[in-house]
Amino acid sequence: MVAQSQNRLSSGVPGLDEVIEGGFVQNRSYLIRGLPGSGKTTLGLHFLCAADAPKNQKSLYITLSENENTIKDNARRLGFDLSRVRFLDLSPTSDHFSGSKDYTIFFPAEVEQEETTHKIVSAIQKWKPRRVFIDAITQIRYLTVDTYHYRRQVLSFLRFLIEAGATVLLTSEGSPEAPDEDLQFLSDGVIQLDNSESGRSISIKKFRGSSFRPGPHAMTLTSRGMIVYPQLVPQDHRREFDPESMSSGVPEIDRMLFGGLERGTVTIISGPSGVGKTSLGMQFIRQTASRGEHASVYIFEESVDTLVHRSESIGLPVRELMDQGTLTITHIEPLKYLPDQFANLVRKEVEQNQARVVMVDSIAGYKLSLLGGDLARHLHALSKYLSNMGVTVLLINEVETIAGGIFKATEAGISYLADNIIFMRYLEYRGQLRRAIGVLKKRLTDFERTLREIAITKDGIQVGAPLTNLRGILQGMPDWESGEP
Q1: Which domain holds residue 137?
Q2: Measured between alpha carbons, how far is 216 from 199 in angstroms, rounded to an integer?
Q3: Model confidence over 424-442: pLDDT tens digits?
Q4: CA-CA distance, 334 to 298, in Å (whole number)?
Q5: How far apart are CA 345 and CA 218, in angstroms?
Q6: How far is 284 from 353, CA to CA, in rounded Å?
Q7: Do the bridges between strand 355-361 and strand 294-299 make them parallel or antiparallel, or are there none, so unpaired?
Q8: 55-73 as b/e, with b when 16 or more CB fall inside 10 Å?
């Protein structure tokens, strides 16, 4: 939650105040740019209806294009309370088309400009609004005879509103035919809304008198309005914690890790499909939740019910822990959640529910949500944030090789993110597939450098003695020196 300073006004948009470092600076003007359907009007409604405004303080919506009744109807459908909002409807009426007006000497634009100005001045003097939203300011361009007069008219208009004590948001319908560069220079801030194949986003291009977070930041338009998901900046978040070791609950695995996984570390559990990566991760999760600490699991490929059933079939009481409130399992539809949106979901779990262990299953599913974005950059930001907050991170990574072939810890170039790498492999012996587990990397302590056989059974995870007579597994040619494992 971003603290509001006395000279700031909340945007009213969840997440946007964090991007603009606390809200809009009072008595300034801000230009909202974007193509039709990008959310300009929705942002303006959030601003006018923001919860931080006093109940006796009026806001003013000046519409120059869409009629008042349509705006009110759309706003109510989104759940906006318009009780404190006054409307000045300057949009064209049907009379402009059907009526007959003979202006004789004056150009129609000059007459309409004078009438429009009078209405605006009267409304400001009557209601004395502290928040003003103008949609769309570019309509004034058509009431002036040339660019010079348009620029002077807009500048004079904005100064009038600000001197009257208002903070102003204005929208632009910028296009190659009607560019709005002049408005960008005149405004104290510029907010860009975009809508592309990779999703909606919001960026701050200019913000006089204040710092802001560079974008783009993910944004969605929902049935309740706009939500902004600020890019995760790991260095802005830190929590003191003790980097103690956390047991897996399986003595042999703890011996391989010289005690377990330390708090605030990132662990990649890597291996081919079906080898037991998720089951191993859930073993750590179960152990954390059983201690009364909160654990959170995000799954991309399978449903919550499927994961619960699989876990309980190997002796992990997942449903019981969920009922106790120490375990949360969330299914993520990868093509629905953007990376910034997912990161903010994780943040809430950590900062509000005090999650101490977070598991992402899997990296491949997470990558789908990027829609061509930079996997390493987004995963780095999320992992670093969690580490700074003392959260133990488990990343499930699938490699394509089933048995044999060249050994790879990951196939996405993200090994550098990991403090610990646990790998699982299939072994073929006399036509039978067996599983092996090993530790490839551990930053904070030493670790066991031998492989062990691992089995996933109805009684849980069982790990055997070190396979000291096994050679060649990492080269894809496992060979027993003597006897059988």
Answers
A1: 8-231
A2: 11
A3: 988 876 677 889 999 999 9
A4: 11
A5: 13
A6: 19
A7: parallel
A8: eeebbbbbbbeeeeeebee
